[in-house]
Structures are given as structure tokens and as C-alpha cells.
Amino acid sequence: MNSVFTRFSTVAVLILLATISRILPHPFNFTPIGAIALFGAAQFNRKVFAFMIPMVSMLLSDLFIGAPSLPTYVSFVLIATFGIFFLKKFTFGRIIVASLIASISFFLITNFFVWFQSSMYPQSWAGLIACYTAGLAFYQQTFWGNLFLNTVMGDFFYCSVLFGSYYGIQRLTFKPSMA
Fold first, then answer.
1. pLDDT tens digit string along 103-146?
2. What pLDDT shows up at residue 101?
3. What is the pTM of this model?
4. Most Cβ neighbours (<10 Å): which of 12, 48, 69, 164?
5. Which DSSP state fits 143?
6. b/e code 63-81 from CB counts within 10 Å (16+ = b)
């Protein structure tokens, strides 16, 4: 069997499975969005697929969830772009750092859009800071935990599942044969 096709399909199936978890019940903000962007960026050799496969997967899940969110897609693209460069060589430490950066980026980008698109805050530096401050207050403790912490934990969890599953599958499936 063609190992390139097998590798491609393995990565695509893992992304699809992670994306399906978006439509299953889960704690608020505990989603695979950042992890999918990082995993696709790190694993696809053709970088067009690093954006296309996860993006199509996200769009399909958004059909079930409801209205797609432009800030989510913008953060997704920027996280994937970061992942392409930062995860050229991926180690456990790099995956942890990338996951944390993905969570922080998601917060900064989505709250930037709240500031930019609404009249709730003045369109000034002070208004942007007020929006981020209010965004932090939104991440207060809830029944499901701290919403920002849920984003961080979701990214850590799904990065662990995606990268770990791929590593395990790769070790089982693609091990060199003894001749």
C-alpha cells in the first residue's frame, strides 16, 4: 500500500474524528480547534492540505453547531500558519508551547473581533484593553470550570490525542519490515 496515501488518510481521519467531538456534548470552550490547526500544520506535507482539510472539517461540523464564526476561522488560519513554522520539528515541549500559544491566540483574536466589530468599546487602544479585560472577566469560574482554562486544557488534551494517536498508529503501521 502506498505509504504517502496511508499517512495522508490517517491524518485526515484523525482530524475528522477530532472535529466530530465539536458536536458532542463537552464543557464550554473544551474544543479541538487549536489542536486540529496545529496537527494539520505539522503533519501534512503539502501545506495546502494543512489548511484545506481541517477547514472543510470545521465547516462541516459548523453545519451541525450553527453559524460559523469568522473570528474562529481567522484564529484557526493564524494558528495553523504558526504551526507550519514552529512545528517543522515537533517534540513534546514544542507541542506544549504551540498548544499554549494557540489558546492565547484564540483569546486575543476572538476578543479583538469583539472590539473591532461592536460599538460596546471605543475604537481606541483604551477600548481594546477594556475589551480584553472584559474578556478575562468572561472567563470567570463557572460550573464547568474556568473558560480560558478550558480552552488551554482542550488544546492540550486534543494535541495529546492527535499527536499521540498518530505516533502510535505510525509505530504500529509504518514500522520497517525485517528482510
1. 899 889 989 999 999 899 999 999 999 998 888 766 655 555 56
2. 94
3. 0.84
4. 12
5. T
6. eeeeeeeebbbbbbebbbe
Q: HSE-up of 67 (CA within 13 Å, CB side)? A: 3
Alpha-carbon separation of residue 153 from 31, 47, 156, 164 (angstroms): 9, 26, 5, 16
Average pLDDT over residues 37-51: 91
Torsion of CA 55, 22, 72, 50, to 10 degrees: -30
Q: 29: phi > 0 → left, psi -120 to 50 → alpha, else beta; which? A: left
Residue 10 one-letter amino acid = T
Task: Give me the long-range contacts of 64-73 (CB less than 8 A, separation at least 24).
Answer: 64/23, 65/22, 65/23, 69/110, 70/113, 71/109, 71/110, 71/112, 71/113, 71/114, 72/33, 72/106, 72/110
Measure the CA–CA gap between 42 and 39, rounded to whole angstroms: 5
46: nearest Cα among 75, 77, 11, 19 = 11
Instruction: Give the pLDDT confidence of 57-88 residue by residue, as tens digits.
Output: 888 888 888 777 888 889 989 999 999 999 98
Give the closest residue to 41 by CA, choosing from 2, 108, 94.
Answer: 94
Nearest CA among 96, 99, 127 for reference residue 111: 127
